[in-house]
């Protein structure tokens, strides 16, 4: 699959916390960090997401903010 999004971060699912409608998916990135995505419970099911599965965190945004202390 090819996507127009430039930010495609490979990783492995570390945890899935399922709620009534949505699920929080924690992805351990290859570089050592983590990223969390909130998606629908239905998407978790239809993608067959499970802990340990290799996935991509795909970030498509027109704006990225940078902050410092």
Which terms summarize this structure?
TOBE domain-containing protein, globular, OB fold (Dihydrolipoamide Acetyltransferase, E2P), molybdenum, 4 strands, 1 helix, Mo/tungstate-bd_C_term_dom, mainly beta, 4-stranded antiparallel β-sheet, 69 residues
Describe this structure in words.
This protein is mostly beta strands and 69 residues long. The chain has one domain (7-59): RNA polymerase II/Efflux pump adaptor protein, barrel-sandwich hybrid domain (OB fold (Dihydrolipoamide Acetyltransferase, E2P)), CATH 2.40.50.100. It is 10% helix and 48% strand. It is built from one helix and four strands, in the order βββαβ. The chain has one helix at 41-47; strands at 7-18, 22-29, 34-40, 54-59. Strands 3-2-1-4 form a four-stranded antiparallel sheet. The longest helix is centred in the middle third of the chain and has 7 residues, at 41-47. The radius of gyration is 13 Å and the shape is globular. The termini are far apart. The model has no long low-confidence stretch (mean pLDDT 91).
Task: Offer a concise description of the structure.
It comes from Methanoculleus palmolei. This protein is mainly beta. 10% of the residues lie in helices and 48% in strands.
